[in-house]
Specification:
154 residues; mainly beta; seven-stranded antiparallel sheet; three-stranded antiparallel sheet; 2 helices
Length: 154
């Protein structure tokens, strides 16, 4: 027997939250957080030594390590700049202002209205300062650009 008006909410933190970014942007009522040593989205009691290893959603200054670029479009553009580049991936920051992007060494300014937290970033290329710029990778940093918080396209 269930009391009238009783509702149960069933969920599994790791379901459809395979990356830190997807985990930390999940609905806070689920109380899911990123367990660093397990590299999984878990409830706090399921993470070993959670005081040091568990990152809750909404923690001020929280960042997800190991960003990864999965797709970039377009792959070419004029050296005069103005090209809007879309970058898809994982752990691409939780807020647009913490992500820095360069395309073939040229700064690319994030467009906040196009940003999808942790998953997609759109930026606009500035003009190249080189008369004949060489091709190069997309380089992305989350925060300070230390080794665990930077990546580049293949």
């Amino acid at each position: 027997d269930k009391p009238p008006g009783f509702k149960a909410l069933l969920y599994k933190c790791s379901a459809q939250r395979s990356s830190c970014g997807l985990c930390l942007k999940s609905d806070p009522r689920y109380e899911c957080g990123w367990c660093v040593p397990e590299r999984r989205c878990l409830l706090r009691p399921h993470c070993p030594a959670p005081r040091q290893n568990w990152v809750p959603p909404g923690r001020r200054g929280a960042r997800c390590a190991h960003p990864r670029i999965t797709q970039v479009s377009p792959l070419t553009g004029p050296k005069e700049g103005g090209t809007r580049v879309t970058i898809w991936g994982e752990n691409l920051g939780l807020h647009f202002h913490e992500v820095g992007v360069r395309v073939a060494g040229v700064r690319c300014s994030s467009l906040p209205a196009e940003y999808v937290s942790a998953e997609r970033l759109v930026c606009e290329l500035e003009p190249s300062l080189l008369p004949d710029p060489p091709p190069g990778p997309v380089e992305l940093c989350v925060g300070d650009c230390s080794v665990d918080y930077r990546t580049q396209s293949d």
